[in-house]
Amino acid sequence: MADWIPDVLGDEFEQLTLDLGADEQGPVMATLVRALPVEPGWWEHVRGRGPLLEGVDVLYVHGWSDYFFQKRLARFWTSRGARFYALDLRKYGRSLREWQTPGYVADLATYDEDIAAALEAMGRAGGESLQTRRLVLLGHSTGGLTLSLWASRHPDAVDAVILNSPWLEFQFAPARAAIAPMVELQARIRPLEAAPQVDLGFYSRAQQEVADPDDPMEVNPLWRPVQTMAVYAGWLHAILSGHKTVAAGLSISAPVCVLLSARFVPPTRWSDDITSADSVLVVDDIARAALRLGPSVTVERIDGALHDVFLSRHEAREDAYRRLERWVTGWRATW
User: Fold this and answer.
1) In what order do the strands lie in the sheet containing 160-164?
2) For the CA atoms of the chain, what is the radius of gyration?
3) Residue in 311, 312, 254, 324 with CA at minimum distance from that of residue 82
4) 101 conformational bin, left if phi > 0, alpha if psi -120 to 50, beta if neither
């Protein structure tokens, strides 16, 4: 396996390239980014008081047309003693190569290979029941869908699932059943047929409008374009299949926390409302779908939040972190 090297985020962040073999387009790789907590001092050991999340590993997976760049989110976990890892999936961000179709897979289960490679690099290979460290999955948007499906298939591997605006249902849910047969046919005939671009760039603009100077973030526009990457028939079929599976009900045995904006605003024209709402997902539909993930689900609705609640304006962003802190503290108390 390759060595850990300094990451583009600088500071305490490192990255590791994960070799995933090859597909029809050539060599494939994923990239694991890590930030580790500061080891407790001797006095903490003498007192017998370790950090709140000592013994916890967090694995983050980004959304569509995205990659990991949120330093503060990582430090939320490492400051409490957890080891934080973020996975740039194949054909995204740090893992994207010039010969690849950005973001493309025809089956979300393909990412089982990426996740397995990440867990091995985290030292979590082997028997899931033998692990002494707890595993928290943290997913945003499409990453939330991917991790939800994975957690349902691997119930013994996961101790908690935290989802940031997970894409659990197609926009305007009744449309899914109507378009699914057409998308499936197109995916079989011409899987790399691209749909017309419908993103007007309003979501990216909203993030810029509400950027917090006290919590700055630098984004690589090649890895996170203003308008989303092209949507292909094969990829959309994979997403709709995932939505159908969620609608039928998952079996995530671990407790789940879902963070969502309080409201949705359609991105048909620019308005200030887009800076204080989710303009990507119909959040009421997502809240309903979240209840099908498993027997223990908490849904947190955050007033003024964007699609990525941790990129919202200052007040909503702080609210999101407060709610995450409250949930994690309660989860820790159940050990």
Assistant:
1) 5-6, 14-23, 26-35, 83-88, 56-61, 134-140, 160-164, 256-261, 297-302
2) 19
3) 324
4) beta
| pLDDT tens-digit series, residues 173-191 | 777 888 898 999 999 999 9
Q: By the 8 A CB rule, do 327 and 254 touch?
A: no
pLDDT of residue 78: 98
Length of the chain: 335
- CB-based contact 256:299 (threshold 8 Å): no
Which residue type does 95 have? S
Q: What sign results for the dihedral spanned by CA atoms 88, 94, 97, 102?
A: positive
pLDDT for res 328: 98
pLDDT category, 193, cuts 50, 70, 90?
Answer: very high
* pLDDT at position 178: 84
298-325 as b/e: b if 16+ CB within 10 A: bbbebebbbbbbbbbbeebbebbbebbe
Please give the backbone phi and psi of residue 296, each rounded to the nearest 5 degrees, phi first: -130, 95
123: phi then psi, degrees, rounded to nearest 5: 85, 25
CA distances from 35 to 9, 109, 120, 144 (A): 10, 27, 16, 21
Question: What residues have CB less than 8 Å from 237, skipping those under 6 apart?
Answer: 106, 180, 183, 184, 186, 187, 191
